[in-house]
Amino acid sequence: MITNEVIALAQELWDYHHMQHEPQKADCIFALGSHDLRVANRAAELYLQGWAPLLIFSGGLGNLTKSIWTETEADQFAAIAIEMGVPADAILVENESTNTGENILFTQELLQERGLDPQSFIVVQKPYMERRSYATFKKHWPDKQLLVTSPQISFKDYPTDDIPLERVIHVMVGDLQRIKIYPAKGFQIYQEIPDNIWKAYERLVELGFDKHLAR
Q1: Which end of the chain has fewer CB within 10 Å, C or N?
Q2: Cβ–Cβ under 8 Å, residues 140 and 130
């Protein structure tokens, strides 16, 4: 049940997951695929504002999208960007990856094949996955300059019919757990989690928001 307590605790997690980075000029915009098509809009918007000359969309069909779509995340994202006015020749598509680590590794391979070596990236992801994306990218590509951004939407306004509030909270809880446990597995760099954030996480788990936890 979504009570006022749950909303307050979830807002704390939402705020922590945001990196609060401001866009800066970069060599490329790197959008990570997902079920949230607003990520594509944000990436295209950044390109059209002139923040970078190259736009990469990465994502096949992941755990969630394979049950709802037949067209890959990256291909859908690219179609949205082209519709918004991004030239097709400014876009690269990597449509085989199924998780954040693969997004990065498969994109590294694609760039090598094309003879491209961008040094600075604007990574675009869902709002509550900014921090985890940053930590994963820095693990796999430590020598690159990186900032992370997401659709500019508040926690209150983020849920939709397709992305209900309850699911968002389950995923935020699971992502916080991964920020804690994944550095030891070699998947991400270490990120400090303040005590109040971890307490909010523990309380949400206690209240039953545990469907996205790594077992």
Answers
A1: C
A2: no
123-155 pLDDT, tens per residue?
A: 999 999 999 999 999 999 999 999 999 999 999
Q: How far apart are CA 124 and CA 60, in angstroms?
A: 16
pLDDT at position 67, please?
63
Three-class DSSP category at 178? helix
- Is the separation of the CB atoms in 151 and 80 below 8 Å? no
For 97-115, b where at least 16 C-beta lie within 10 A, e where not — what string? bbebbbbbbbbeebbeeee
* CA pair distance 6, 4, nearest whole angstrom: 5
CATH of domain 4-206: 3.40.50.620
The domain locations on the chain are: 4-206
